[in-house]
């Protein structure tokens, strides 16, 4: 297990400071704001710690309200909205500097047998082992130059292998623009067999590439375009258990953008082709001198 993944697991081990009140921290690195996937994952951990172990999360709906300050801790207040016979509902408010920066509603459900179907087939794509590492692909674009050298040398908690073009590639070559992104990802370690942990880590990874799907359609790229962006809201539905220390195919598309906003949606498939998670996110996209 590399140091980056150890850091993520440590970030998800929230400190309980009172009944239904938890405190989380951010990585000790120079970033302008807290990564949205981290806040969503920590909030889901806080909610999950107040729910009986026989109930697993099946959906979450979240709003990013203010940028998170990476210098100070985030306080997560959990409201026990409902404890029913089959479903449990929790609402989490993340607070910094006395103000709400993020809200999350999550629903948990006992296991029940019922009818089942899956309309979407997993896309036919090359296997992850046949695809280059993200850092190797980026290094081929930017070379061994500063500040890219240090950024690419840093270990990453998630091993991501892109099937489709990177935003930087589409920025340089307009013929590579498109509204679909397909990425294999996994956490490269043997993780504990804890269903909540795997769901939380899926939520953490879900925010990595969704906004990029909107950028890809326009040939925009972080650091290469006059573009700023942020997640506005995020929703996930967990259909069946998945193991994120095994490969997951994250198939994403952006059906629309306009008015300084973009919509992206994604589906996570297990290696055997089972649909495990559905994701939808709206983001803010602003381009200076487009």
TrEMBL record:
Q: Which Pfam families match?
A: 4HBT_3 (PF13622), Acyl_CoA_thio (PF02551)
Could you name the domain of life of the organism this protein comes from? Answer: Bacteria
Record carries keyword Calcium: no
Annotated Acyl-CoA thioesterase 2 C-terminal domain residues: 180-282
Kindly give the InterPro entries that the UniProt entry links to this protein: Acyl-CoA_hotdog (IPR042171), Acyl_CoA_thio (IPR003703), HotDog_dom_sf (IPR029069), TesB_ACOT8-like_N (IPR049449), TesB_C (IPR025652)
Q: Which UniProt keywords apply?
A: Hydrolase
- Residues forming the Acyl-CoA thioesterase-like N-terminal HotDog domain are 31-109
Q: Does the keyword Hydrolase apply?
A: yes
Task: Tell me its family.
Answer: Belongs to the C/M/P thioester hydrolase family.
> Which PANTHER family does the record match to this protein?
ACYL-COA THIOESTERASE, ACYL-COENZYME A THIOESTERASE 8
- What is this protein identified as? Acyl-CoA thioesterase
């Amino acid at each position: 297990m590399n140091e980056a993944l150890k850091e993520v697991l440590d970030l998800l081990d929230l400190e309980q400071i009172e009944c239904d009140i938890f405190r989380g921290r951010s990585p000790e690195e120079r970033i302008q704001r807290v990564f949205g996937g981290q806040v969503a994952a920590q909030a889901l951990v806080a909610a999950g710690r107040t729910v009986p172990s026989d109930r697993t999360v099946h959906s979450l709906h979240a709003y990013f309200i203010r940028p998170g300050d990476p210098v100070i801790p985030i306080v997560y207040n959990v409201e026990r909205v409902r404890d029913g016979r089959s479903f449990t509902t929790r609402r989490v408010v993340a607070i910094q500097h006395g103000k709400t920066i993020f809200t999350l509603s999550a629903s948990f459900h006992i296991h029940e047998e019922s009818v089942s179907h899956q309309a979407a087939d997993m896309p036919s794509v090359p296997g992850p082992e046949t695809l280059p590492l993200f850092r190797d692909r980026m290094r081929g674009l930017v070379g061994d130059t500063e500040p890219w050298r240090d950024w690419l040398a840093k270990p990453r908690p998630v091993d991501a292998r892109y099937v489709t073009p990177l935003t930087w590639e589409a920025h340089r070559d307009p013929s590579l623009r498109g509204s679909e992104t397909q990425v294999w990802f996994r956490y490269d370690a043997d993780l504990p067999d804890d269903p909540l942990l795997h769901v939380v880590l899926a939520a953490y990874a879900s925010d990595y590439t969704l906004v990029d799907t909107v950028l890809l359609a326009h040939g925009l790229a972080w650091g290469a375009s006059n573009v700023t962006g942020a997640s506005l809201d995020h929703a996930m539905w967990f259909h069946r258990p998945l193991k994120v220390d095994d490969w997951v195919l994250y198939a994403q598309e952006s059906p629309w953008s306009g008015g300084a906003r973009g919509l992206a949606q994604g589906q996570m498939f297990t290696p055997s082709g089972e649909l495990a998670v559905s994701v939808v996110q709206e983001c803010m996209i602003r381009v200076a001198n487009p």
